[in-house]
Amino acid sequence: MAFGARILVWGERACFTRPEMKVERVSYDVITPSAARGILEAIHWKPAIRWHIDRIHVLKPIRFESIRRNEVGGKLSPASAAKAMKAGSTAGLATFVDEDRQQRAATVLRDVRYLIEAHFELTSRAGPDDSVGKHLDIFNRRARKGQCFHAPCLGVREFPASFALLEDDAPAPLPDDGVEADKDLGWMLHDIDFSDGMTPRFFRAHMHGGVIEVPPWQAGEVKA
Amino acid sequence: MTAIAHRYEFVYLFDVTNGNPNGDPDAGNLPRLDPETNRGLVTDVALKRKIRNFVALDKEGGPGHAIYMQEKAILNLQHEKAWKALDIPPDTKDGYKKLPKDEAKAREITAWMCTNFFDVRTFGAVMTTGINAGQVRGPVQLGFATSVEPVLPLEISITRMAVTTEKEAEAQSGDNRTMGRKHILPYGLYRAHGFVSAKLAERTGFSDDDLQLLWRALINMFEHDRSAARGEMAARKLIVFEHASAMGDAPAHVLFDTVKVERATLEDDGPARSFADYRVHIDAEALPRGISVREYL
């Protein structure tokens, strides 16, 4: 594990929204590689590096809960913001929540705990003084101390993630009783290809002994 | 405005007496319950709404403190006007759906929104998608508030000595009465956790003044949120952890674990009915180095 990092993340609730059920959100059964990458990036990231998730260990049983909330339906148009800028006043630039209200249910995960194994590679934006070792050291130092750029979350920001570094010599924790060790999780979002106009790419997620092997991003089985 | 230079976490305790802190639309407006533990819940967005309302009251929309997500029942005519007479031509393909392709222009818009709107600067806002600059991730993050102990919702039936329609009056042959229902919790003490990222504050310009305003909002927001449904709600404790550095010096969960809320008397003396039945203790010994803790309330 000289070139990778292992980090434990856990929290009360999580929502890794399935893209096909976005309106009334339904979470995937487990954390997606994309969300795991987001957690790592909340701790340390530079344009010079790119995280790759290798393995996800599911340490707690998969359980769901439903929550319904009032949300707003619309988004701010930059055009109206530009208009207000020109006028130099915020008058009339607002969303009135009671006119734009939607009640949406979310089916979210309860009481989750994962071990994320990941490594990174340097991107084309890496300078001469960027090296894998340097960034890995920074990441490990930060994770050990509990430092982060912003508080990482479990899919959505209202579900904060606690995290702790798993040191190189520590054994991987065993899943709790009640974790269904072997499960076919179906097609799951791997990550979004930002270089190709935000195309989501999927992979077939299988849990073996509580561990999901995440295929590399370039692998043939990852399909857009 | 210079942005804040420290990371913060906070523990916020508030209670409700004979009221409903946050109704559940899925359960006929019963107080929200965690079905597994019977603990009460108050969503993050409910708390954010009250913070916004307090700031709107306190600053009266003064410069830099306008509120973008407003609660108001008047038609926003100016919003429609904004679609006309623009100096940014709409994109030929996407119309107004995407931010201007010109990234500098997009950033300018985002920066202007952050400067003028307190809630955009604090909680962030999604201003269409497409370019990252169009999505502001705010520095302040709140989790769900959970009650310290399981709560018991009561259903209270009430009568009204009037009816709504003439038809009802006729059906009751003049005995004009209707029955209604209220859901209350006799008592519940709730605990919420929050996070303030100094690094994200740099991007939105969330300043020390804004932070002080946030603390004031948390302390006072229930004072301006009285209603028939709420009963008596009060902020009870606001415990703030300040890290020495912007990135932070300790894991958040370690800090939260130092705040313990227990029953004042350890022998079980029935259900809690007031804040005096609880004891809040901060384990100062367990605080990691580089963390200073402050009780604002």
UniProtKB/TrEMBL annotation, chain A:
It comes from the Bacteria. Keywords: Antiviral defense, Endonuclease, Hydrolase, Nuclease, RNA-binding. Coiled coil: none annotated. Its EC number is 3.1.-.-. Pfam families: Cas_Cas5d (PF09704). GO terms for molecular function: endonuclease activity; hydrolase activity; RNA binding. One of its GO terms (biological process) is defense response to virus. The keyword Hydrolase applies. It is an enzyme of class 3 (hydrolase). CRISPR (clustered regularly interspaced short palindromic repeat) is an adaptive immune system that provides protection against mobile genetic elements (viruses, transposable elements and conjugative plasmids). CRISPR clusters contain spacers, sequences complementary to antecedent mobile elements, and target invading nucleic acids. CRISPR clusters are transcribed and processed into CRISPR RNA (crRNA). Belongs to the CRISPR-associated protein Cas5 family. Subtype I-C/Dvulg subfamily. This is pre-crRNA processing endonuclease. It comes from Thauera aromatica K172. The lineage of its organism: Bacteria, Pseudomonadati, Pseudomonadota, Betaproteobacteria, Rhodocyclales.
From TrEMBL, chain B:
Coiled coil: none annotated. It comes from the Bacteria. GO terms for biological process: maintenance of CRISPR repeat elements. Pfam families: Cas_Cas7 (PF05107). InterPro entries: Cas7_Csh2/Csh2, CRISPR-assoc_prot_Cas7/Csd2. This is CRISPR-associated protein Cas7. The lineage of its organism: Bacteria, Pseudomonadati, Pseudomonadota, Betaproteobacteria, Rhodocyclales.
